[in-house]
């Protein structure tokens, strides 16, 4: 159990966001289909779904930017509406598309967005200084956004969304198109915000990020809640076990199509095998959960004379979970 989860269990299990039976229609299209969501205070919560799954609609309903047809939304145990200004001051949003003013400097941008929540200039000055330090932009405070690299621009986007020190923060694809160093800095910053007490709702197409920082993850599609749990709990829900990859130029031991096809048919007939594919150089075998899948596959390959080069076996990932539950890869 992570330090965050221990802190949540020990201190509070109350909800930061609770959505019940949410329905949103656009004409004949059902964007949210009795959708449920319960985000605990103090956690980093991953919200995953392919484009068109309803993620953005759900978030906009939670923020009272959209009306909905049925259901309830509560934030910190209060109903939220367009005029719930006190409640909205406790919320920060870091959008996927960078939303800053090119005419303003880094410091002026942060100050402007902070002023939407904090009118007192003296208090705001201290918050802006903290935000500059938090995202590592103090040396760039006089720069205009057009002079920043993609990674630094993403950091500015984050600073503008969190400078007022919100209790609940929505991060929508915050690491899109940034270099690895900036990505690590952003993820570490999100974890630091969480450690300081913020609840985080995080969306991303990068499964490894979600697995790295999120305490719990909800997968949705077609406006519906499909699965919820930790990364390990989600992986345990699917049939897919290990994925075996074998480099070989002579599958089946025969240098013609008949031998290759015979070997593939034998592999697919194994009880442990869900699928087997060969591109002429690499064999990929997707297995069900089992104790000796690798041994079964290798024994069969050895028996039909396949010469084996590089071999690898990996356990299921969140991508496998997503693929099995939604029938599609998490797409951009």
UniProtKB/TrEMBL annotation:
Q: Does the keyword Protease apply?
A: no
Q: Which GO terms describe its molecular function?
A: ATP binding; ATP hydrolysis activity
Where does the source fall among the domains of life?
Answer: Bacteria
**Swiss-Prot/TrEMBL keywords:** ATP-binding, Nucleotide-binding, Transport
Sorted alphabetically, which SMART domains does this protein's record hold?
AAA
Identify one Pfam family in the record. DrrA1-3_C
ABC transporter domain residues are 17-247
Gene3D superfamilies in the cross-refs? P-loop containing nucleotide triphosphate hydrolases
* Xref: CDD domains: ABC_DR_subfamily_A
What is the protein name given in its UniProt record? ABC transporter ATP-binding protein
Lineage, top ranks: Bacteria, Bacillati, Actinomycetota, Actinomycetes, Bifidobacteriales
């Amino acid at each position: 159990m992570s330090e965050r989860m221990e802190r949540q269990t020990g201190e509070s299990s109350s909800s930061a966001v609770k959505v019940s039976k949410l329905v949103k229609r656009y004409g004949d299209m059902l964007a949210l289909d009795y959708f449920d969501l319960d985000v605990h205070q103090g956690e980093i919560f991953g919200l995953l779904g392919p484009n068109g799954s309803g993620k953005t609609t759900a978030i906009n309903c939670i923020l009272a930017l959209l009306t909905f047809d049925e259901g309830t939304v509560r934030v910190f145990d209060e109903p939220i509406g367009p005029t719930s200004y006190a409640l909205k001051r406790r919320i920060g949003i870091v959008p996927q598309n960078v939303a800053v003013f090119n005419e303003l400097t880094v410091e002026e941008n942060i100050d402007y967005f902070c002023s939407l929540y904090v009118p007192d200039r003296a208090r705001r000055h201290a918050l802006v200084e903290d935000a500059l330090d938090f995202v590592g932009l103090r040396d760039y405070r006089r720069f205009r956004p057009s002079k920043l690299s993609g990674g630094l621009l993403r950091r500015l986007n984050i600073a503008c969304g969190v400078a007022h020190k919100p209790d609940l923060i929505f991060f929508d694809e915050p690491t899109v198109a940034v270099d690895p160093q900036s990505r690590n800095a952003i993820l570490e910053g999100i974890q630091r915000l969480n450690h300081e007490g913020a609840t985080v709702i995080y969306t991303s197409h990068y499964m490894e990020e979600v697995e790295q920082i999120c305490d719990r993850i909800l997968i949705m599609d077609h406006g519906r809640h499909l699965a919820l749990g930790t990364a390990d709990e989600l992986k345990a829900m699917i049939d897919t076990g290990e994925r075996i990859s074998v480099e070989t130029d002579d599958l089946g031991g025969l240098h013609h199509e008949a031998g290759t096809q015979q070997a593939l048919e034998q592999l697919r007939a194994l009880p442990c095998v869900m699928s087997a594919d060969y591109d002429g150089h690499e064999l990929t075998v997707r297995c069900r959960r089992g104790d000796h899948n690798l041994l079964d596959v290798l024994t069969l390959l050895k028996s039909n004379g396949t010469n084996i080069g590089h071999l690898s076996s990996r356990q299921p990932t969140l991508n496998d979970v997503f693929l099995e539950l939604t029938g599609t890869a998490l797409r951009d």
